[in-house]
Write a structure and sequence with these properties.
510 residues; alpha/beta; 8-stranded parallel sheet; 8% strand; UvdE; endonuclease; Xyl_isomerase-like_sf; hydrolase; endonuclease activity
Length: 510
């Protein structure tokens, strides 16, 4: 072989060697880069994780960090990335809302000889509006029939227990604020008089006894006003039976509280059913012949503004020795042919014979009310003051006066301040609504509305979408299936009858 060929061969081999060397260097460089990258990751992780040992991790060729299964990680090494180890700053607690400051306007000062008690119906606005809502106090929690079917009768009984517990709270609050006359809600025990789901109140006898004992200790008077569906003069036997069941339920409640004769049950005459005289005869027959004795001993009648005036009811009351509650507001809308003084003297005589303390009702129409339907609705307060009849001995000086006003105990406080009857603590006073309207937020009449030309207004189209879901349990209601006794009635926009909580209405005239 020639020297030249040896040189060529050497040159070729050198070339190959150099290529091989470059290839190895390149491979080594990638491995080094991979190792450097992995080392950097481990170094960063180690600083964050308080120096994790190298043997706990294996780095694959893709630079992925794999935990060695042979070595158990420490409790503080569970997080795999620094971003996940960040903790949120604790939320600062909300500052409590400051107590509202009420500006109470002064009232016109007047004088009176009245020395009786003033009371309110069923609901206390201060206690009902306590915050949070879970602290609210009221006695008319109710439910639906479907809830009883689903949850059992014990669920509705529990509502009754809660109502009585809150009644005890209300009695104590009343004593602390010098109010010693209260109408107990008819919804204390939902569906207690129902023909299928009705139940005895004996299960709550201990609580009822506590409520009655507290009222007796302080000298408070407790009464009740069964709903407008209690129709003892109805031509339908089923309605009369249901009405008697309702009165029995109220009587049982009063007896378990140990309330004496003054715990009366107030009802209206009801509808006229196209013939007032025959209806009055049915009413008289039911009271005389069908009511149990303990129910009849508590029953009193009241004049209303649509069907029966005091003059209509007084002859039955005198014949059966059933007291008549005189309602000043109703008498102004459906007056008798003789003055209130004469009616009050005659009915007070019945109260005296029966050994029951006289009781009257006071309210006034809402501002701006003109039509009969508008004037029926009760105002927020009795700003006109006490009627002049209460100034006369033997008429109204020493009676218990139920204030049927929307502001409940606040209406009583205003009369206390107006006549200087009782000192009122500032902490429980609330200002009147300056924008009181003649309409109320109660249920509206189902009569068809007419335009000025007499044509019936067209109904507005119903909006599409799902209706609001009704919450069944632990809610406040002033009318439900438990007091619907099957009578057709006209729904009023507002009334304090029955529960006195924007519920109730007078039966329509037929």
């Amino acid at each position: 072989m020639s020297p030249l060929s040896d040189v060529d061969e050497e040159f070729s081999l050198g070339k190959k060697k150099r290529k091989t060397t470059k290839t190895k260097t390149r491979t080594k460089t990638k491995a080094e880069k991979t190792k450097v990258t992995a080392t950097t990751k481990i170094s960063k992780r180690s600083r964050i994780k308080d120096a994790v040992p190298d043997q706990d991790h294996v780095v694959d060729v893709a630079g992925q960090d794999v935990v060695n299964e042979d070595v158990k990680p420490q409790a503080d090494e569970e997080s795999s990335s620094p971003s996940k180890t960040k903790t949120k700053k604790p939320r600062k607690p909300r500052a409590p809302k400051p107590e509202p400051v009420y500006i109470i306007p002064d009232v016109e000062r007047k004088e009176t000889k009245f020395r009786g008690r003033l009371g309110y119906a069923c609901l206390n606005t201060v206690l009902r509006n306590k915050k949070p809502a879970s602290d609210a106090v009221f006695c008319s929690r109710t439910c639906r029939i479907d809830s009883i079917k689903k949850n059992g009768i014990e669920s509705v009984k529990e509502l009754g227990r809660k109502n009585v517990q809150d009644l005890i709270t209300m009695i104590q609050w009343n004593e602390e604020n010098s109010i010693r006359f209260l109408r107990v809600s008819s919804n204390m025990f939902p569906f207690a008089s129902h023909p299928i789901y009705g139940y005895s109140l004996s299960y709550a006898s201990d609580l009822l006894s506590q409520a009655g004992a507290l009222a007796a200790k302080y000298g408070h008077r407790l009464t009740s006003h069964p709903g407008q569906f209690t129709q003892l003069g109805s031509p339908r036997p089923g309605v009369i039976e249901a009405s008697i069941r309702e009165l029995k339920y109220h009587t049982e409640m009063m007896e378990l509280m140990g309330v004496g004769k003054d715990g009366v049950l107030v009802i209206h005459g009801g509808g006229v059913y196209d013939d007032k005289e025959k209806t009055l005869e049915r009413l008289k027959e039911t009271i005389r012949d069908k009511l149990p004795r303990n129910v009849r001993e508590r029953l009193v009648l009241e004049n209303d503004e649509m069907c029966y005036s005091a003059e209509d009811l007084l002859p039955i009351c005198e014949e059966l020795d059933v007291p008549l509650i005189f309602d000043y507001h109703h008498d102004s809308l459906k007056p008798s042919s003789f003055p209130p003084r004469e009616i009050i003297r005659r009915t007070n005589a019945i109260f005296k014979r029966r050994g029951i303390r006289p009781k009257q009702h006071l309210s006034e129409p809402r501002p701006g009310a003109e039509s009969l339907m508008e004037r029926r609705a009760h105002a927020d307060r009795c700003s006109s003051g006490l009627p002049t009849e209460l100034e006369e001995e033997g008429v109204g000086m020493d009676v218990d006066l139920m204030i049927e006003a929307k502001d409940k105990e606040q209406a009583v406080f205003e009369l206390y301040r107006m006549y200087g009857l009782v000192p009122c603590g500032e902490e429980n006073l609330r200002p009147p609504n300056p924008n009181q309207k003649k309409e109320t937020n109660g249920r509206k009449s189902n009569k068809k509305k007419q335009n000025e030309d007499g044509k019936v207004k067209a109904k507005s189209p119903r909006k599409k979408g799902k209706a609001k879901k009704i919450v069944d349990m632990d809610v406040e209601s002033d009318e439900d299936e438990s007091i619907d006794l099957g009578e057709d009635v006209e729904e009023d926009a507002d009334s304090d009858e029955g529960d006195g909580e924007d519920g109730g209405s007078e039966p329509k005239q037929e």
